[in-house]
Amino acid sequence: MIDRRAFVAMVGGGILVAPLAAKAQLASKVWRIGFLIPVSLPDAATGTSPIRRLPVFTQRMDELGWAEGKDFTVESRFTEGDEQKLRNAALDLAGLPVDVIVAVSSPAVNAASAATAKIPIIAIDLETDPVAKGFATSLARPSKNITGLFLDLPELNGKRLQLLKELIPKLNRVAVLWDPGLDPTPLKAAEAAARTVGVDLRVAAASRRDDFAQALSEATRQHTEALLVVQSPAFDAYAKEIAVLALKHRLPSIGVFNGFAKSSGLMSYGPDLRALFAQGANYVDRILKGAQVGNLPIERPVRFELVVNVKTAKALGLTVPQSILVRADEIIQ
Fold it and tell me: At 270, is the secondary structure helix, strand, or coil?
């Protein structure tokens, strides 16, 4: 017969040991974080690949108490703008399985959501309205397995067109470099903004590196006077190449991220992409600590920056007005 006090001690000890064992198991787990980005890796001489943003993510994870290699590993999948390859990459990550997927751009979010309805997906999507697209029930409470950072701000392209018009008051015709593989919302917003600003917008479609030269040559043949580069992972990866082509064709250009202006583009105006990857780490931190993805509110980028390349302006024979320079967060001489 078991002594009653021994039995109570044994049961009580079991009650204490179970949570401690669970916590120890959680602490010893090495989490798998999947990254899905629909762009191939450019060489160092011609691009600024999104893979360079990953150290920002891992640095923020380190600040939050997660050490790469010890607490988590990163499974990165970069495709070449091919829709089937992207779908296969998403299925590959889901099949490992990873514990969370960070999907960069609307095609990546589409592919990840088609691959899994269970694994949490953290979006860094600068093209999509997540509620209209069906990714979330609401911004405050997504309710599904997708949350993260979405930018569906029609006025963003309007502000960038206004900057071009302010720099070139007689501007009439603008080429817009657009990736047809992405959500069309930014293009529609740019077309609406062009009507408001009073310029004629001509679409230059490109989705891969090989498309850029032809797209800008066609823009020149259509007598466009400036270039608006809308958001796309491919355009960010090859920012330098696009900026150099624009300068070659004598097209004053404006991109989204600061890397474009720093790569000899005329201007850039948009969110801080490094900050977006750090915010993505904040989401992953909460997921790994047990938060339900459907309860984490969707966020918008909060910091936008204007970068002006005065050196490029001089090469184009332009003088940047003081009204723009005083608003610039960074001026490249």
Answer: strand
Given phi > 0 = left and psi -120 to 50 = alpha, else beta, which region is 240?
Answer: alpha
Position 104 pLDDT exceeds 70 = yes
Whether 119 and 95 have beta carbons less than 8 Å apart is answered as no
Q: Is 84 left (phi over 0), alpha (psi -120 to 50) or beta?
A: alpha
CA within 13 Å, CB half, 236: 23
First to last CA, the chain: 88
What's the rounded Cα separation, in Å, for the pair 318 and 284?
Answer: 45
Whether 13 is covered by a domain: the verdict is: no
Cα-only R_g, the chain = 23
Q: What is the pLDDT of residue 157?
A: 85
Structural domain count, the chain: 2
Q: Is residue 319 part of a domain?
A: yes
Smallest CA-to-CA distance from 206 within 167, 232, 226 is with: 232
261 or 4, higher pLDDT? 261
Residue 207 sits in a domain whose CATH number is 3.40.50.2300
